[in-house]
Amino acid sequence: MEATEKDILRGGQFLVKETKCEDVFTPEDFSEEQTMMKDAVMEFNEREIIANKPRFEAKDYALTEEVMRKAGELGFLGVAVPEAYDGLGMGFVSTVLTCDYISSGTGSFSTAFGAHTGIGTMPITLYGTEEQKQKYVPKLATGEWFGAYCLTEPGAGSDANSGKTTAELSADGKSYKINGQKMWISNAGFCSLMIVFARIENDKNITGFIVEYDKENPNGITLGEEEHKLGIRASSTRQVFFNDTVVPVENMLAGRGEGFKIAMNALNVGRIKLAAACLDSQRRILTTAVTYANERKQFKTPIADFGAIKTKLAEMAASAYAGESATYRAAKNIEDRIALRVASGNSHQEAELKGVEEYAIECSILKVAVSEDVQNCADEGIQIFGGMGFSEETPMEAAWRDARIARIYEGTNEINRMLTVGMLVKKAMKGHVDLLGPAQKVQEELMGIPSFDTPDYSELFSEEKEMIKKLKKAFLMVAGGAVQKYGQNLEDHQQLLIAAADILIEIYMAESAILRTEKNVKRTSEKEQSAQIAMAKLYLYHAVDIVEEKGKESIISFAEGDEQRMMLMGLKRFTKYANYPDIVDLRIEIAEKVKAENKYCF
Amino acid sequence: MEATEKDILRGGQFLVKETKCEDVFTPEDFSEEQTMMKDAVMEFNEREIIANKPRFEAKDYALTEEVMRKAGELGFLGVAVPEAYDGLGMGFVSTVLTCDYISSGTGSFSTAFGAHTGIGTMPITLYGTEEQKQKYVPKLATGEWFGAYCLTEPGAGSDANSGKTTAELSADGKSYKINGQKMWISNAGFCSLMIVFARIENDKNITGFIVEYDKENPNGITLGEEEHKLGIRASSTRQVFFNDTVVPVENMLAGRGEGFKIAMNALNVGRIKLAAACLDSQRRILTTAVTYANERKQFKTPIADFGAIKTKLAEMAASAYAGESATYRAAKNIEDRIALRVASGNSHQEAELKGVEEYAIECSILKVAVSEDVQNCADEGIQIFGGMGFSEETPMEAAWRDARIARIYEGTNEINRMLTVGMLVKKAMKGHVDLLGPAQKVQEELMGIPSFDTPDYSELFSEEKEMIKKLKKAFLMVAGGAVQKYGQNLEDHQQLLIAAADILIEIYMAESAILRTEKNVKRTSEKEQSAQIAMAKLYLYHAVDIVEEKGKESIISFAEGDEQRMMLMGLKRFTKYANYPDIVDLRIEIAEKVKAENKYCF
Ligand SMILES: Cc1cc2nc3c(=O)[nH]c(=O)nc-3n(C[C@H](O)[C@H](O)[C@H](O)COP(=O)(O)OP(=O)(O)OC[C@H]3O[C@@H](n4cnc5c(N)ncnc54)[C@H](O)[C@@H]3O)c2cc1C
Ligand SMILES: Cc1cc2nc3c(=O)[nH]c(=O)nc-3n(C[C@H](O)[C@H](O)[C@H](O)COP(=O)(O)OP(=O)(O)OC[C@H]3O[C@@H](n4cnc5c(N)ncnc54)[C@H](O)[C@@H]3O)c2cc1C
């Protein structure tokens, strides 16, 4: 499938352009190669990770390193790395699916894996010189060396560019001396290479360096003790202290002062991968939960037969399904855009960088949505297990603890929420996505007389797709109104930004679930896809509620009097179904399917 | 304040009777004695529990026992116990406030305390014979002995009456022999007395026994190893095995087959106490969070100044405030009803039993609402701390783990949700609460022409109180509709029961917050109470959203066509503000107050 510039949505454009179901990639579109990769990774996960679960929970850091080493031997650490640097050179979708299926055994491994392959390796593949890549990437791709990423400091977390670590050029101009303290560094305990960010003189922006680390010859680097954490217990997390650490000048990444850009772009890729890393956890939690619920009897009834439990199973399934739909949709958009850029003469490096940057909005959306979904899923998993869910003998409590970190690292979910809307507004200003035109149309529609036609919604998803269009109008109305009111100061109105982000997130997720299902119905049948149809409808129904809630709160806050009334009426129109779906029935249908298959089966 | 039968709402009646603000008890009404008790308990908590927090987290079970012993020496274990049995003989409000302020240091202690004073002691004080009380209660009230409660079995959790443990009468008729396996028994590791439920022959219902336990002379009792749990790490939780354990016949509690009733009533009291036990945790989490947020700077700004953080602080405060309001309101209702029954000739024992039973609906509401609020509060607490929230060095992660159990034990929140509505329907059938009349009125109102008057809402809370009335109508419409449609089979429609419960819960909580604030405004001023007013309004606003969401989902599921349309229109009317409050501003006001005081200050 050749992608042309025309076909591919630009990042953020989903909001104003209708996407045809044929144009989204779905997990059902995996190629043979991708399916083989998935099977290999799943097998690895079962054998090396899940089988050793208790050891990870007992803080066996050495095991994490050992399993990472094995992953390297099998090529899993180099999926995204070009063959020229001893990687597998596979596409972005394969990268994402590896991340997905390798991450569900334990958050300890998934963090080590994510930190190494993502923020530990990507700064070099994306920004490194040919020499740097030749020298380091093969070692990282094969697991001979492990990477860590040293950005955060005690005083610099979300405000990553404010770090105090310094890099001072030597008198002979041949090296930098790094001094400072980094904290929360994943993989610190067993890495051989660190991507370190430090400030040169009084630069506005930090600079990135590749720093080798050899325990035998520490070059001024010392490590703190392992941090004791709520979850991901066997993931090595330490402080790292640099005391006159000497780094040759040729180890600077990109140019002086380019570090902040590197840091942010590495995080962009990290975000969609982190979303992926939560997906198989959700599937696995649901499978474990339904298996238990089918077996556990109370009141002479398998608890899976109780409505209270069915609701949980259905909601868990629907959110996992939407998460998959959106993640693979975005992954393929990125892959296509990389291909397009390569075709038009960009280097692979440049193409990958720009490809991911283009979809930074979607990456943030995914990070927030899926990290919260997996948390809820684990929470309900505990509840389904009752008292047993609280025991370390069953897998739910660890899943719940491990999930908690995903809402904090790679940018907290607050920061990511604000980023989505912030980036979108910027894209609109730059003319990369035309929001103004559509927003004005919505404004006009608000003033106009609503149509009282009852449209024909007999075709599958016709009402749902109309609803998605309306939700997009709701977003444009709300965000547009806020921009008009507060202009440049919108940033100071975080509550509004966050509410707008919530709307945006729901639209992307719900639309993705619907498009995936529509595509699959076209190649199979409504009957075969009936549970998927139910999940897409259920997800959308909640999305509509959230849009209404967040929209209302926002409108009330920035508009008054007639304007407020008009916008609230518009919101009502944009969130109104002609035929309300019965979500009680939808949930039962989904739950019955999951119960019958005794697993997440989509 | 003498209470007369007329003054006091019956349990569940809050739904159909308007409560005046003068008729609710609030934490601001604490007597001098109660305030002294509160101070003493807080001091104990600081000194004995919080100061030793790391030891509790390190599973120091012996410490839990030791601190329980000290609590006994100070009388804290006997607050509710009549002086005749060496207790303090204080009222129900004092019992609840002790539970509140002693429980926030760690869930490990609060579980030990709750299990001992509640389900471990109450079955004897509520159902014991004079001899049994004389023999055992003083020991329990002073902490000479500790109690455990053995109801749950591997196969009998929510379905508590299905246990397989047996009690067989000896040939000489002098004793019972108990055989069976209990699990999840709190305090098992250091108790001297167990309330054990077992079945005699093929009885439909189980029977309660007082079983002494002496490690030196175990009488067929063996304990499993300590369970390793997600939270409440230093709370002893073990399996208990009975192997021909001999219990004299005079240790049977109440009559044969009365065990299930005992178990359920002990849990009723347990539930409001469990709610109380979550309150000070919420306060403490908020205080810790705001202190951190005031200190922690990112982007050269204390994070407490960011809208994203203000939202969290405000929502945390509002939910804690509503939780307090509702818990003490119900506690005093119970205390008054006990007093009333004593005044009309009941024994204290009988009076207490009936008093608590009367408010079983409120107890379940509180258990669900407050256990979920403290979970959310801890969750946001972690998020405010960012990466530090994930570290065992800061108190948020333990609070989050410990909170998780409250949604599982004392009846899972699913079971309690269904109970609230189930009990209410039963009360209506029995004529104890007239729901039918009011429900019919709502029905008529739905058919009638809505009034288009714009009422005068200038007085404080006039619109909010009108809104509460409307939400009650919404409940009657939804629950009434469901009862009409499904009649006796309503039980099979758990999704509806749960949605109705959510509505009921929100009404009780929101109303309690409003009434408390109104009462306090009357004795101080609107200015002094402005943050409280904001919290009551904020809480109500969310309650309205929840009622709308849950109501809509229910109506769509059980009604069709014109009936559905009519009810949805009714729901819209019942959830519509004339003047929408700006919750963005409300949150800012609340957050500014909390920030300025640097603590939960209400
Ligand atoms: C287990 C673990 C592993 C980690 N691994 C790595 C790693 O390998 N490499 C690395 O460099 N870092 C790593 N981190 C650090 C992580 O990226 C940071 O914790 C995260 O970016 C948040 O920063 P912080 O902890 O300083 O929180 P803060 O930035 O102090 O944030 C505290 C709170 O304030 C909010 N906040 C902050 N700024 C704003 C704002 N402008 N507006 C609104 N709200 C705001 C946040 O959302 C959060 O709720 C790791 C952290 C953990 C816990
Ligand atoms: C740390 C801890 C301490 C405890 N302490 C004690 C103690 O001191 N004494 C004691 O006797 N017990 C104790 N318990 C047991 C506790 O009360 C039970 O765990 C609880 O009642 C739930 O029972 P279960 O675990 O068997 O779950 P189950 O009853 O198997 O429930 C599993 C799931 O099914 C749902 N479910 C069950 N029945 C229904 C239904 N009819 N309709 C809809 N949903 C349903 C539940 O809500 C839950 O989500 C403790 C438990 C723990 C974890």
TrEMBL record, chains A, B:
Location of the Acyl-CoA dehydrogenase/oxidase N-terminal domain: 31-144
Classification via PROSITE patterns: ACYL_COA_DH_1
The Acyl-CoA oxidase/dehydrogenase middle domain is annotated at: 148-244
Cofactor or coenzyme needed: FAD
GO molecular function ontology, one term from the record: oxidoreductase activity
What the record says about family reads: Belongs to the acyl-CoA dehydrogenase family.
Name of the molecule in the record: Acyl-CoA dehydrogenase family protein
Q: Report the source organism.
A: Lacinutrix gracilariae
